[in-house]
Amino acid sequence: MALWMVLALSLLPGIGNFAGGMLAEFGKTSGRLLNWALHAASGIVIAIVSVELIPEALKVLAGWWLAAAFGAGGIAYMLVETAVEKAQSASDSSTGNTRMWMIYVAVAVDLASDGLMLGSGAAVSIGLAIVLAAGQVLADLPEGYASVANFRRNGIRRTTRIWLSASFILFSCGAALLSYTLLRDAGEEPKMAALAFVAGLLTVAAVEDMLEEAHEARRDNRSSVLAFVAGFVLFTLVSAGLETLLAA
Length: 248
Description:
- The chain is an all-alpha fold.
- The chain has helices at 3-26, 31-58, 63-90, 96-124, 126-153, 158-183, 188-217, 222-247.
- It has one domain.
- It is built from 8 helices and no strands.
- The protein is globular, with a radius of gyration of 17 Å.
- The chain crosses the membrane at residues 34-54, 61-80, 100-133, 162-180, 192-211, 223-242.
């Protein structure tokens, strides 16, 4: 798989994030819409893990290797999240500019994990990379919406919000190129371990961050659950459709 193709696919999560951000920037924002968007994004992420990443890794890895890699990914996300939370706590009495950068770092970590997943998937096959890229575009639309809505709530200027949203593309591209370069000549086991590692990252992000933020935005109701289910179903249908097209 050519490096330029990996770069092109890695642009998609950042573009999806930016598009969602612009919906929040120039459209209507509310706690209810944010709640639905984040539930849908969580459903998509859980579908990526359960429909694509784990089944792919199970083809090669023994169960205990899969468990170890998944656990390492979850713990890694928790460590990064803890560091960001400590920095946020230290800035609670600081300026709005400092708080802005804490939000920025948190979203950048999410985009970097998207890039890591795409680079690892591209090292396995182009078909897997395309399906994962499509899924991340779907998930990053509501995530981008949430990030810009957060920037607006913290009083960040519009011009700064737009530039910050656009710059997230660099994190997904950088992480994708790095992981692909490291894994493309590796054996099957390291590639699948990387997929399981990313699955742990994404699962913790969906369950602990996206859903928690959704609950803070607005209390859940049946529509919230429906949004979660719709996200899972949407990615599963997109995945099946793309795999059929690629096979043909």
